[in-house]
Amino acid sequence: MVFDLVIVGGGVNGCAIARDAAGRGLSVLLLEQTDLAAATSSASTKLVHGGLRYLEQYEFRLVHEALAERELLLAAAPHIIHPLQFILPHERSIRPAWLVRLGLFLYDHLARRQRIPGSTTVFLEGTAFGAPLTADHRLGFSYYDCQVDDSRLVILEALDAFERGADIRVGAKLVGARREGPQWIASVAGADGRLEEIRGRALVNASGPWVSQTLEHRLGLRSRKHVRLVKGSHIVTRRLYEGAQAYMLQRPDKRIIFAIPFEEDFTLVGTTDIPFPGEPGPVTICEDETDYLLEAIEHFFRRKIARSDVVWSYSGLRPLYDDGSLEASVVTRDYAFDLDAQGGAAPALSIFGGKITTARRLAEHALDELAPFFPHMRAAWTGGAVLPGGDLGRGGFDAFLADVTRAKPFLEPRLARRLAGAYGTRAWRFLERAKSLADLGADLGFGLTEAELDYLRAHEWARTPEDVLWRRSKLGLRFDAAQTQALARALTPRGAA
User: Fold this and answer.
1) CA 49 to mean position of chain CA atoms
2) Nearest residue to 335 (alpha-carbon basis) of 348, 319, 347, 349
3) Residue 271 lies in a domain
4) pTM of the model
5) Domain residues for 272?
6) pLDDT tens per residue, range 206-237
């Protein structure tokens, strides 16, 4: 078989392109060497947002596009994406109040809002919003963006692509590729290490931080475009405050730190922006980054915490398109393409930059670039399409959760909310026949049942405890070592041990 598209990289951009292309009638193969969303796409701040601070860099087109996408994504995946209110305490020495109000006015009006409330000025003293904050924060601003389970968004894109005919291969590594007439011949190592030659009419390099290495060392191509790697780190603490609101915290260096309610019992704090000069690969938070985030908490919140209160940290490399900016925090979050198709050769499209919020639109633009090579490709379609599990009905998430609770009263409320929030209507695929908790099989810990695990293996490419605990869920925050080992045994195929 000759595929129309061979896509390298199972992050948010690669999976969004696979989904869009499969829905347009192209035959698609996606190669991911480790796990879907294993790198940058699971190391975000878990937000679908317009990028309020990008207005200071005059990124009006990017903010407009991101705000428009925020509305589309909220409609497409209301189970994993939810509106979130942000409180921005005013710091007079950093930005004057009139400038913040102007930025919020633009944020409200750069794109049409249907589901997201507008911004307001709030007085913090003596209010629930101000209660967690130190006494010198009396004036603030309220605005809304959305919270997202980033890795689940990627997995749902891959699942939608698969159900539209795409071949999704997790654990498959591109060893190298060469052009042969109008085709690419790709050498691919499967999860078992065996090599296979695969033919494709076009190749998409969506390998994120590895985009340049893939170009030069796997495809034998060069580009004038480059990525600039920036390390972003987050910490997760026990819950810092009561309330469902998040906080946007302005720092003296004019960077922004978010404090966000996370997984019911925790607060997510981040992110840092550290230039990363090395080769792409796994990264971890450093002491200076932890201190930077703890100092922000110390300045704004009444509750004081120490390093011992940090229950988890994670870091990722953002492959930002290098626009020549001197400071990492102001490098554009926009994206760029490099199409190599000189002399009628088989095309190779490389993706530089991008972000979670704009990945769907990036995919449309990528296929626009490739459209001349596929004249029979159907029109764009994802703008009004729902992601798997997102067909919750007119009542939205709350009504759907109520339906789940009524239909399955044996589910403890927290478990019902987790399953509804992770899977949406797809939860019925393993809940439908259950009349009791016992019908879902053994509980491997914190409500993770054998039935759910079987679903993750069969439909979401989960193979390891890390896949399950950190990318298909965030149960890793709660599992201990013994439970993780038991999960590993449950994931081991019978006879393989």
Assistant:
1) 12
2) 319
3) yes
4) 0.95
5) 82-147+228-320
6) 999 999 999 999 999 988 888 889 999 999 99
